[in-house]
């Protein structure tokens, strides 16, 4: 989703809010000042989207003449501690949505925040003055404060040192920058993945680091009702009540599932069944439900009589749907109904002490093996997968980290699984088309996708080769652009690409097109940028001519008059690195200039890039494989 497209969505929603709250005093007062109305509406949107607060009027305290508005309010966090929030929104026109906020505007906001903290802000409304007085008392009581700068532009790293200095000068103070990129990520999470983002209007506690107390049930005279395993890793099996799950999710939300291969779905028929059992037949719940599996980093010694235990860190690696469904059922129940649910329903909790990242990942894999979960699902929460996905949100190609991740898509956006991106990147950028073909032969034989397997687990694993700190979003994009041009031109079905020399042509394209571009434009030409401009302007003729040149070179190399021998050579090219390097070496020796490529004639029905005719060699690999 392009930033301009997202801006239009938000701006449209702001216009709807202005219409919805047309009788609001501030909106009526600023009827002729659209900038002020939009800044005010942006605060309402922020409160409703993140905090789900529909009674916004008690929160918004002021509006300035510079198209910004403020909120100063307090809230109890999930630890029961009072926190003051100060939010400033800055609306801007569409032409500025791809630009960085000017540093001077951020410095002005920091100055305003400082003035509010010191209680020196003048000419304020009675409502704002009351909240500032309360804030002053809160600071004297050593309370926490969080500032949020909300803007429909991009952040500006030039102000980072100023923000850092501000935080250092104000103890127990946090600063969050919510720019248009962050808003877009969170918007996509909720609207298209159906997952609630972290709420910035609540204090966030990382469940992987926090001390967590949970209540366990003892049904036999105060003791027993648990299983303990001591070796090789400590583990317990407990019974817990719905109230315990509700309180955990209420406190930590979706961060309980960072290490899970699946996030809970906000709406699904499966979840509805779980909710219905918890609500209508709570006594049957334990019989119908497999329960939860969780990993913790430290389990204290537990007395037989203990009903409350304290853990260091907690991650639920299996049972996300159960947790969320119980949370929904419990939160919607009356106090009387909650008592009934707690008195009758029990949930099994398997609690394992962490044995390190590799052990934890394997436990996650095997505990989810009863459902179809593949290798890429287990990598979905890796930092690099999240980074790449967020970077792709700036385009109309959405990088899918796991199957079924996006429940819906906005118009004009195409979902592309990361295994497709990885194949293109491996072939074009890393120049290893043989790795692509051999991996899919591996999938056919063993169902193991080496793209997402570490070399630590399998000597042929490709994960770290493809996904590492040097992996750039731009290189994944360009690799896919070229792949997309080929399959569209030659009407490829995706399942056919792995029984063809498509990935080899994709790899050799880098060599040939680089020679062509340097001949035509000089040594300093940026090849990546050139391909991007040609693709995005739909001017792909020279790219197609380059593809045809490479394909004709390969056809000549394999001499079609000797069909059987040619077929064997073709298979060898696909699967042998030495054969591929031999062919690549011959191509490197050929002089390639502007005439070489530009005189290639494209025909309406050019012969497709070579496809294996032997059906046994065709791969059964879908786009999600």
Write a brief structural summary.
By secondary structure, the chain is of the alpha/beta class. It has 25 helices and 14 strands. The longest helix has 20 residues.
Shape: globular
Nearest-angstrom radius of gyration?
29 Å
Main sheet: strand order:
1-2-3-4-5
| Overall pLDDT level | 83
* Cα distance spanning the termini: 25 Å
List keywords for this structure.
single chain, 625 residues, five-stranded mixed β-sheet, 25 helices, 14 strands
Detailed description of the structure:
The C terminus is likely disordered. Strands 1-2-3-4-5 form a five-stranded mixed β-sheet, sandwiched between helices. It has three domains: about 190 residues, no CATH class; about 160 residues, no CATH class; about 240 residues, no CATH class. With about 625 residues, the chain is α/β, with parallel strands linked by helices. The chain is built from 25 helices and 14 strands.
Layout of helices and strands:
Blueprint: H1 3-20, H2 25-29, H3 34-50, E1 60-63, E2 68-76, E3 82-90, H4 103-117, H5 126-140, E4 144-151, H6 160-169, E5 173-178, H7 180-191, E6 211-215, E7 227-229, E8 235-240, H8 242-252, H9 269-280, H10 285-288, E9 292-296, E10 308-312, E11 315-318, H11 320-332, H12 335-344, E12 347-353, H13 357-367, H14 375-378, H15 383-392, E13 397-400, E14 414-417, H16 418-428, H17 433-446, H18 463-466, H19 473-489, H20 502-521, H21 527-536, H22 541-557, H23 563-575, H24 577-588, H25 594-598
Parallel strand pairs: 3-4, 4-5, 9-12, 13-14
Antiparallel strand pairs: 1-2, 2-3, 6-10, 7-8, 8-12, 9-11
């Amino acid at each position: 989703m392009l930033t301009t497209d997202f801006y239009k969505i938000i701006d449209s929603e702001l216009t709807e809010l202005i219409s919805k709250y047309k009788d609001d005093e501030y909106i009526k007062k600023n009827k002729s000042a659209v900038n002020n109305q939009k800044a005010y509406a942006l605060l309402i949107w922020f409160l409703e989207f993140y905090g789900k607060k529909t009674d916004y009027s008690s929160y918004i305290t002021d509006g300035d003449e510079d198209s910004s508005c403020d909120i100063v309010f307090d809230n109890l966090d999930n630890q029961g501690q009072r926190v003051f929030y100060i939010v400033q929104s800055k609306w801007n026109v569409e032409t500025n949505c791809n630009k960085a906020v000017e540093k001077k505007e951020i410095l002005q906001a920091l100055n305003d925040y400082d003035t509010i903290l010191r209680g020196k802000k003048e000419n304020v409304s009675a409502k704002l003055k009351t909240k500032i007085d309360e804030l002053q008392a809160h600071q004297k009581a050593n309370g926490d404060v969080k500032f949020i700068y909300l803007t429909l532009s991009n952040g500006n790293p030039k102000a980072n040192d100023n923000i850092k200095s501000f935080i250092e000068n104000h103890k127990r103070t946090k600063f969050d920058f919510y720019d248009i990129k962050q808003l877009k990520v969170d918007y996509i999470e909720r609207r298209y993945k159906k997952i609630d983002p972290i709420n910035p209007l609540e204090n966030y506690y990382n469940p992987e680091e926090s001390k967590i107390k949970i209540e366990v049930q003892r049904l036999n005279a105060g003791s027993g009702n648990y299983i303990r395993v001591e070796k090789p890793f400590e583990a317990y099996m407990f019974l817990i009540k719905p109230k315990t799950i509700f309180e955990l999710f209420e406190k930590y939300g979706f961060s309980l599932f960072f290490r899970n291969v699946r996030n809970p779905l906000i709406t699904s028929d499966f979840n509805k069944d779980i909710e219905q059992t918890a609500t209508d037949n709570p006594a049957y719940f334990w019989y119908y439900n497999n329960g939860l599996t969780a990993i913790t980093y430290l389990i204290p010694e537990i007395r037989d009589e203990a009903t409350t235990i304290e853990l260091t860190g907690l991650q639920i690696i299996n049972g996300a749907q159960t947790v969320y469904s119980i949370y929904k059922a419990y939160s919607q129940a009356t106090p009387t109904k909650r008592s009934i649910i707690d008195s009758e329903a029990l949930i099994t909790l398997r609690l394992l002490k962490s044995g390190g990242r590799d052990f934890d990942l394997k436990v996650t894999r095997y505990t989810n093996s009863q459902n179809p979960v593949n290798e890429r699902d287990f990598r979905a929460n890796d930092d690099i997968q999240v980074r790449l996905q967020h970077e792709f949100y700036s385009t109309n190609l959405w990088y899918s980290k796991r199957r079924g991740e996006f429940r819906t898509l906005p118009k004009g956006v195409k979902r592309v699984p990361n295994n497709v991106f990885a194949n293109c990147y491996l072939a074009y950028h890393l120049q290893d088309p043989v790795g692509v073909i051999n991996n899919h032969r591996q999938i056919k034989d063993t169902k193991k996708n080496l793209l997402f397997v570490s070399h630590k687990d399998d000597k042929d694993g490709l994960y770290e080769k493809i996904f590492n700190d040097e992996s750039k979003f731009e290189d994944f994009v360009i690799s896919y652009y070229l792949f997309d041009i080929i399959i569209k031109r030659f009407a490829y079905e995706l399942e056919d690409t792995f029984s063809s020399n498509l990935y080899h042509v994709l790899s050799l394209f880098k060599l040939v097109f680089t020679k062509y571009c340097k001949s035509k434009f000089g040594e300093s030409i940026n090849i990546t940028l050139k391909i991007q401009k040609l693709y995005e302007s739909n001017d792909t003729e020279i790219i197609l001519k380059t593809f045809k040149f490479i394909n004709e070179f390969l056809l000549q190399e394999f001499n079609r008059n000797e069909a059987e021998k040619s077929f064997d050579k073709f298979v060898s090219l696909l699967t042998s690195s030495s054969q591929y390097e031999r062919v690549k070496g011959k191509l490197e020796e050929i002089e390639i200039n502007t005439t070489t490529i530009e005189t290639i004639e494209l025909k309406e029905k050019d012969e497709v890039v070579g496809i294996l005719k032997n059906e046994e060699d065709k791969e059964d690999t879908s786009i999600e494989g």
